[in-house]
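JOB MANIFEST
job_type = single_chain_structure
chain_count = 1
residues = 459
[input]
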Amino acid sequence: MEPIHDLAAETCPNNHQNILIQLGTKGKLDEGSPKESNESPLSSPSFDSDQQTYPEGGLQAWLVVFGAFCALGAVFGIINTSAVFESHLKKHQLSEYSESQIGWIFSLYLFLVFFIGIQVGPIFDAYGPRLLVLTGSLLMVASLMFLSISTEYYQIIMTYSVMGGLGGALLYCPAYGAIAHFFNAKRGLATGIATTAGGIGGIVFPLMLQPLLGKDGVGFAWSCRILGFVILFLCVIANLFIRNRLTSERRPKKCSVWPDFSILRHRGFACAAIGVFFTEWGLFVPLTYIISYAQSHGNGGIESSILLASLNAGSVLGRFLPGLLADYVGRFNVIIGTLSLCVITLLGIWLPAGNSKSLLFAFCTLFGFASGSNLGLIPVCIGQFCDCHNYGRYITVANMIASFGTLTSVPIGGAMLGLGGSTGWTGLILFSAIAYVMALSCYVCARVSSTGWKLWKRF
């Protein structure tokens, strides 16, 4: 069974023409004549020639994946550690603040990562990743160093949320976009491998921080600095290996650096972008509050950190295995299945879990697997609607829409805990589950609008 391919000859919203990428002699890229196509991504006759234009492997391509792995490990490893920071800040520096107020710290970080990306994507498409990755690296490291000396709420917001969020925005888009330049048929696998970094960071960082922040540890300041040095190491590797395949001479001549919302006229893409919003709306509530839930239901600090590690361990497998499967059975087909699994685990395991440690560990592992696949598959699902020249533009428009979900989800969850009393956790879990149901509906609509009601069609 052959892997499916992404749409390689799609209308460029800024050039108002289709660009067919063909392989020239000695591996060079040439622009073919514009042509119109209303065919689905899975049936375009350009696939045979398009498949040859992507390296689909080789040393340079896999080094790009490694560089993207390190960049995404820095950006999302930190947010996957938010439960540790949330628990510590609530007990120490921000003990007088509500759950909802503390939640804004992590939501603002994610909001800026995704929202600022709306401008980063077109710049990447036009000029490449070098300056973006370097600037993002400096901001990410500086944010943790300044966080180490922050004691007030506004200081933590400015360092962790604003500075870190800006740095993350400059890192994540080039990481995804560079992979799209080197892989087409194997893009799900390559992207899945790179996105496992966030899950691995979510395992390693909490296990590292928990003893450092403990009674016999080095304290909050040096814990942040140590984490900052780890992020510095990852960012150095990212700067060495992330690159794009298209030189300035080979990029489209009229590639604008400004966001282009006209791409939302594509019904399938618009549905998928709204689906990303609801996915992010539901995802970061469990990631942020799972440790607080465990502690409020009788589990100690060390045990709850292991709980978070099991969630991220499941996420590592979830980012890799479904990505591999998606290249063969369809990217949208797989993400629809994993979104369904998210709903099942939230309502069938976490909701009735109560004080049961076995159910909690089962939930963390299964939800980690299902939700991890969402993060790995979203970029390749968006890639179904565009060619590599415009990939940064498409993924950042989708994530800009999703940014409003990341901005509001954690504070909404915190407000539910603050107002709900003993029933607050039930409301929080139901909120996350409903968001996932909406995300599932959007992805089904995106698939149907692109392929019709053909149940077994690969897409």
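[summary]
The CA atoms of residues 89 and 95 lie 7 Å apart.
The first helix runs from residue 47 to 53.
exit_status = 0
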